[in-house]
Write a structure and sequence with these properties.
Elements (H helix, E strand, L loop, with lengths): L8 H4 L12 H21 L1 H14 L5 E7 L5 E7 L24 H8 L7 H7 L3 E3 L28 E3 L12 H14 L2 H17 L13
Helix pairs in contact: 2-5, 3-4
Length: 225
Amino acid sequence: MRTPLPGPLCRWRGERSRKDDGCPLYKRYVKRLIDIGISLCVLVILSPVFLITAIAIKCESPGPVIFKQKRLGLGGKEFYIYKFRSMVQNAEHTGSGVYSGKGDVRVTRGGKVIRATSIDELPQAVNMLKGDMSLIGPRPPLTYHPWPLADYSAEQKRMFEVRPGITGWAQVHGRKDVEWNKRIEMNVWYVDHMSFPLNVKIFFMTIFKVATNADNKNIGETVKK
């Protein structure tokens, strides 16, 4: 029996041709088991990094160590994503809001380091363990940016057919420089072509991106309606 899509996606899907419309073993079970294994390894092996980062953030500026933010996940449902705080408190409500460019005064000194090394993303291992996210998948957008859920087209909403990821196809093809319509298009492409070999490719491409700090700064607004 075919597993129905979660939540609102049932009515988004419609009639269309798919490369693979089934639910192979990897997509149903193996990918999730890999996520659980990787998240546990990250939380245990990198626990000293978590501790040092938390102390550094707490010593440098007032506010919580973990930054929580509502995002859209599987089935378009909202969840809280976790990151190490790299900015001053309430940064998303001041200055340029969701965009952070070169020399952004809201970023703390330590925040510049954890952003450049992507250490700020490590707490998302907890999101992986909980099932909110996967290691590989479309990055989860904000609930209001680039636009509210209701404003996504039926085709664009297909990106929510899989768990969002810490990294994904769009991230290794431009990361923060890609305009949102194109980014969503790449996310939907990933949904149709998701496989173990593709995820391995994305994983190693991500390592290269992080190592070279490529495409890790917003160059301006990336929304075109």
